[in-house]
Amino acid sequence: MAQIFSQTETRRFYWIVALGLLLALTGMSAAHFMEGHGHVVTGMNNQIVWGIPHVFAIFMIIAASGVLNIAAIGSVFGKAVYKPRAPLAGMLSIALLAGGLFVLMLDLGRPDRVIVAATHFNATSVFAWNLPLYSGLFTLVAIYMWVLLEQRMHGWIKPIGLVVFTWRIMLTTGTGLIFAFLVARQAYGSALLPPLFIVMSFGWGLAVFHVVQSTMYYWNNKIQDPIILRRLKNLMGVFIIATLFLVAVYHLTNLYFAKQAAFEHFILLDGGIYPELFWAGYVVLGSLLPLLLIFHPRLGKIRCVVSASMLVILGAFSLLYVLIIGGQAFPLAIFPGYAVNSSFADGQISNYSPSLPEILLGLGGLAIAFLLTSIGVRVLNSLLPNDSITQPKQSTH
Amino acid sequence: MSDKVNLDRRQFLGTASAAIAGFAIAPGLFLYDFANARPTGGAASAGVRWGMLIDSTLCQSSCNDCVSACNKEHDLPAAKSPTDVQWIRKVELKQISTGRQISLPMMCLHCAEPPCVDVCPTQASFKRADGIVLVDKHRCIGCRYCMMACPYKARSFVHEAVLSHDGEMPRGQGTVESCTLCDHRVDRGEQPACVEACAKAGHSAMLFGDLNNPDSEIYRRVRSVASTQLRADLGLNPNISFVGL
């Protein structure tokens, strides 16, 4: 052991674990506080029923699926340079999914009854469909990692990789369908959402992978191959553009339907925090600036790619906040053609400001993902391959 | 000698285990028997379709009696904040093109195709054979997906502990609830509390009855006056419809 890790690395590892544990425990305490006092201590109410915990949870679940792209490129599409990265992608996927589900479950009104979800299955519920999809992904990725790390099983990498790839597409489709199947609200009920979620997962997964990979390489004193990073950053750029395209199509189709015009006006122009987050958070900081950092001829170095990735993650949170909370803040069209008023906020824009406990719960989920990844990288040393640095060729840009 | 002692001990342990198991399981068996005395759902008939016709031309803007009656019947606190539950609410409408003003009560419309039942992961949201849509409060995990799916904002989430409760329907923190169409009264052959209160106030804007029964008043009324199903475009076929919209 002493030969593998230096004393400084070991000390750093324990500090990282301590930090992760502290944050995870804070998240659990916040959930305990919410369970004890009820959701009245959150910013959620009977109009905004899903809040910031869902933004965290859905981000992590989408990224958990997207991060497997690295593995798919290596195992399914046969690009040899990515193969050594597949185990780290698998580990990250498990960690992010665990973090996301941690938040989702502890935000339930009755988290103690979560077993009911497994014993009373409703075949028409997308939520219920997602449960086997989540547990299936855990199992499949665990098998996939075993096949990757066990020399004798290498013959199975491609078929298992293909199953994992198919499963993760189904899982993200399921996540998109949670919203796509909601006929009631103007923001949802669109067949564009599942493909949008899949494209988002590609970009966000890569962004998380870049940040984690660079951090882990730095902490473990290893050097990344800049050629691989260059290829991956180009791929991330393509996914950022694809997400922007689908988001634009989603809003343009809404704008074309007169009945959706008021909602679009709210989300894109006069809805306060929502247009601000959409334009400044998602479009400018989360998409255009990362594209500049990635594709500008003078930029695109490791530091730029990591910064771009962090901005993509910021953009992801902004977009999800607009979609999930903005989508609920706009009043339901129960009485088209009428101005409405009631004691239950009919016809009014609903207010939401996240409270500390629910933010801590969300951060606790991220901490779980962070903790699992850090421990995984430490225990399974081969998660971080020693790159044989290739000299960059003049023509490959 | 020692063998005999061991045998006695074995017998003792066996008998004691059987007795403990018997004590532990027997109450469950008795409960099981009671639970089967009348099968769940046995009271609701698929031949019946309970519904309501709300005449907004008779509903008075100043009157809140249906809401008060509901709160009293189900022992619900009066709503003060956005986190408080509201099973029924009064809605004031103003037609944008004409300025015509309308007042009406709004609650769970007990859809024939309820999206809340479709999306509920645990089957806690369910529809009785007679069309009443309910939440099984012992099975609800509080995910609020039904609230996201309901186009009428009919459901509320219990955000705080329920410290005292004297209603027929169990209530509890962390679960979702909504209008039960006073199923406990309906099963006794009575009218829902809101309907009774509306008639008592002299408005009779709410007509309750069996939409399948040709002898019922509601059966005749829905066939003789123009009524509107809210968000009929969604095809949910609610059992509560409105006149005067």
Radius of gyration of chain B: 24 Å
**CATH C-level category of the largest domain in chain B:** Alpha Beta
The CATH architecture of the largest domain in chain B is 2-Layer Sandwich
Q: What proportion of the residues of chain A form beta strands (DSSP E)?
A: under 5%
Q: Please tell me the overall pLDDT of chain A.
A: 91
> Please, how many helices of chain A?
13
Looking at the structure, the CATH topology of chain A is Formate dehydrogenase/DMSO reductase fold
| Assigned CATH architecture of chain A | Up-down Bundle
From the helix content, strand content and strand pairing of chain A, which structural class follows?
A: mainly alpha
Shape of chain B: globular
What is the approximate shape of chain A? globular
Helical content of chain B (DSSP H or I, runs of 4+): 25-40%
Describe the structure.
The complex is a heterodimer of chains A (397) and B (245). Chain A has helices at residues 7-37, 52-66, 69-75, 86-106, 114-119, 126-149, 157-180, 193-219, 226-256, 261-270, 273-295, 302-329, 356-379, and one strand at residues 338-342. Chain A is mainly alpha-helical and 397 residues long. In chain A, helix 7 crosses helix 8. Residues 389-397 of chain A have low confidence and may be disordered. Chain B folds into 2 domains: 1-37; 50-243, Alpha-Beta Plaits (2-Layer Sandwich), CATH 3.30.70. Chain B has helices at residues 2-35, 65-73, 115-119, 145-149, 183-187, 193-200, 217-224; strands spanning 50-55, 88-95, 101-107, 125-127, 133-135, 156-157, 176-177, 206-210, 240-243. In chain B, the strands form 4 sheets. In chain B, strands 8-1-9 form a 3-stranded mixed β-sheet. A two-stranded antiparallel sheet of chain B has the order 2-3. Chain B has a two-stranded antiparallel sheet with strand order 4-5. Chain B is globular. Mean pLDDT of chain B is 88; it is low at 27-39. The interface between A and B is large, with 51 and 56 residues.
